[in-house]
Amino acid sequence: MASEFELIARYFTRTAPTGLLGVGDDCALFPVPPGEQVATSTDLLLEGRHFFPDVDPRALGHKALAVNLSDLAAMGARPIGCVLGLALPRLDEPWLAAFADGFHALAAAHGCPLIGGDTTRSAHDLAISVTVFGAVPAGQALRRDGAQVGDDIWVSGELGAADVAYRLLDGQYPADAALLAATRGALEWPQPQVALGLALRGIAHAAIDLSDGLLQDLGHILAASRVGACVEFDRMPAAAALAAMDAAPLQRAVLGGGDVYQLCFTAPAARRDAVLAAGRAANARVTRIGQTLAQPGLIVLDGQGRPMTALPAGFDHFPAA
Amino acid sequence: MASEFELIARYFTRTAPTGLLGVGDDCALFPVPPGEQVATSTDLLLEGRHFFPDVDPRALGHKALAVNLSDLAAMGARPIGCVLGLALPRLDEPWLAAFADGFHALAAAHGCPLIGGDTTRSAHDLAISVTVFGAVPAGQALRRDGAQVGDDIWVSGELGAADVAYRLLDGQYPADAALLAATRGALEWPQPQVALGLALRGIAHAAIDLSDGLLQDLGHILAASRVGACVEFDRMPAAAALAAMDAAPLQRAVLGGGDVYQLCFTAPAARRDAVLAAGRAANARVTRIGQTLAQPGLIVLDGQGRPMTALPAGFDHFPAA
Predict the structure, then answer these.
(1) Are residues B119 and B158 in the same domain?
(2) What predicted TM-score, i.e. pTM, was given to this entire model?
(3) Cβ distance of A32 and B28 shorter than 8 Å
(4) Are A47 and A25 within one domain?
(5) How many beta-carbon contacts under 8 Å exist across A and B?
(6) What are the 10-residue block averages of pLDDT along chain A, 321 residues in total?
(7) Which residues of A240-260 are buried (b: 16+ CB within 10 A; e: fewer)?
């Protein structure tokens, strides 16, 4: 059986890019361009809680980094590097090799090399912690608290597919192989919108990524910015795969479904063309779904222009009793 | 029951120092002084593996940060801030409050505020991930690979107490309340040698912190620097509490005992006075235990000047079969 040090060397040591001191010292070191700040985010993912035990390890390696890159995207930060903590209940080398492949492939695609980490054995659960670092010019980060009254509200990509895939895999919905095939990629291979976040610097007033669901995450922007909003359900970019779904599960998926890793952002109405150009530059679909209001609260209009009343809640790891 | 967001707000939100954007956005933001690099380290700690389930939560909060600050110390980096991931098997608010107290107290003592995090529920194990960030002027970090032939080898503090406390609590040694009382603080409340690491900038050639045990960690310096070493057991600063121990467990504790979080470093023989002055300035005991050699390998001499043959191994989370 390989030792911890051999494991680290085999799967997690890559030649560090110039200027970075990578895996193998007490700390990793990286430079930050003059005038830029460091943006950082951390996530702790657990088997049975954030992913199914039998998930494809390559997809898991991808997603563990993707959810953190999505946080950099939501700040308009350019990725610099990341560190990984891995607690393994057993030593399964093919599993580890596939996990590392998925992780490193996404890291390479975004210029976000693994520069440090910690590998340990766990008693029960597989646990994965990832911390990413990015850089953003001082004062240009896309924060949650910058929305202004009268801003347009936008979302990127499509909504709802990850929620449906999760409920199919979890047995909450009756088995539907075609629907699962059409939605599973959104759940297991989310694509962080890093290029869009960078393109929105200087255009968007506020941004967040949709990890907990549109209503809840948009709610964070509204609360931090002390504004309200009105959005229209029929404008929302529901995933094409959900076209045949009933209204109730569709609303739940689009409004409340988490694990989306698209961006929700606000921008002045005068910058609509700039937002559309940013979407084209980043090869990302962007859809305007409503606008912010001075009056607090979040109104969702249905297809008849009436406020929807029974709105789905977002995901909370410790739901109120 | 409190929601995740309420929990985060109650225990983990502090007013961020000027220039830092703290808990509550997709990313935390921090500035880095011109000409300095970021040093970062991450650890993933698990119940039953890195700490006993009944450990004092205040001590656990302290130690979770201390082991990471110790990595900054070993690089000669000044702490900037940290992020915390916490997976809780249950919601025990008194436990959480004590954990947060221990964490924040050490963070405040070292100017290393909590600026971001992730709280989640786990199925079985309590898991804690901490990532710290520090700053060090470019080119001045104390790396593992800088030792030169003929350097003195030094250690800070005392050795062995944490190992003995661990084995007493784990039932490997017969119960001894007095010995446990005298050693437990070293295991549960390690004091990271941040001030010493800063004082050794420009003096030490190489440094590491003693998380895995003296022989193993010194071995990492030797391997990275491509040098050998000869050290003398009788020079090593065994903890005073171990004075009555038999030779075998004493050697095991001093040479192989992990969880020490003191520094092992090398410095030119011509800088002995500077090292002693750095120790005084940092209020840290520093002890010279040997020197580096051109010939590869690590020789440990006993009290009669003979090479010791049966040396204890360091801690490995995945020991070879």
Answers:
(1) no
(2) 0.90
(3) no
(4) yes
(5) 242
(6) 62 63 80 94 88 91 96 97 91 90 96 89 87 95 96 98 95 96 96 98 97 94 96 97 94 94 97 98 98 95 90 53 31
(7) ebbeebeeebbbbbbbbbbbb
